[in-house]
Amino acid sequence: MEATSLLKKDHAAVKALFKEYETAGDAEQTKQNLFDRIQAELDVHAAIEEQIFYPAVQEGRSAEAKDMVLEALEEHKVVKTLLEEIAVLTPADDEFGAKMKVLRENVEHHADEEEKEMFPEARKQLSEEIRNELGARMETRKEEL
After folding, report:
1. Which of 69, 118, 120, 143 is the most exposed, having the fewest neighbouring CB atoms within 10 Å of its CB?
2. How confident is the model at residue 62 (pLDDT cuts 50, 70, 90)?
3. Kindly report the CA angle at 40 between 19 and 96, in degrees rounded to 5?
4. pTM of the model
5. What CA–CA distance (Å, rounded) separates 137 from 55?
6. pLDDT tens profile 108-130
7. How would DSSP label each residue in 84-102?
8. 3-state secondary structure 18-84
9. Cα-to-chain-centroid distance, residue 145
10. SS3 145
11. Are 58 and 51 in contact (CB under 8 A)?
């Protein structure tokens, strides 16, 4: 699968989990299970972006692409901090729902920004062959993680 298509698929999967979380109501175990799945998805997704996709985008000649990667890495740090904070809570804790909302907003903003700005830049800089090779490497890495 082509790299940006794989990443878009990941984005859609996480967004669907967030929607499921929103409809969980007061079901604390369901909310906990959904958080665990979201965390696992985001951990793997961030790893393949940081280890494989971002370095390839950053190697391009575009200063804009390099700036996009730096911003994306900062956004990843924010998301990772939120995940760590939520992981020590339970859905019964008052802060859990608020932090989940902030997490969702950050993740959706990040995904939308990548899809609208970084992915077109990557398609411009990287040949289809290279994007397919990156996608294959990312799929392999996802399986390993």
Report:
1. 143
2. confident
3. 55
4. 0.94
5. 13
6. 999 999 999 999 999 999 999 99
7. HHHHTS-TTSHHHHHHHHH
8. HHHHHCCCCCHHHHHHHHHHHHHHHHHHHHHHHHHHHHHHHCCCCHHHHHHHHHHHHHHHHHHHHHH
9. 15
10. coil
11. no
Whole-angstrom Cα distance, residue 5 to residue 84?
28
CA 112 to chain centre: 10
Tokens of 101: 């909302």
Q: Cα(120)–Cα(131) distance, rounded to whole angstroms?
A: 12
Structure tokens at 138: 């990312």
Helix 28-48 / helix 3-22 crossing angle, nearest 10 deg: 160
Closest CA to 4 of 124, 98, 96, 145: 124
Pair of tokens at residue 48: 């393949």
Category of 27 on φ-ψ map: left (φ > 0), alpha (ψ -120 to 50) or beta? beta
Token pair belonging to 93: 């804790």
**End-to-end CA separation in angstroms for the chain:** 18
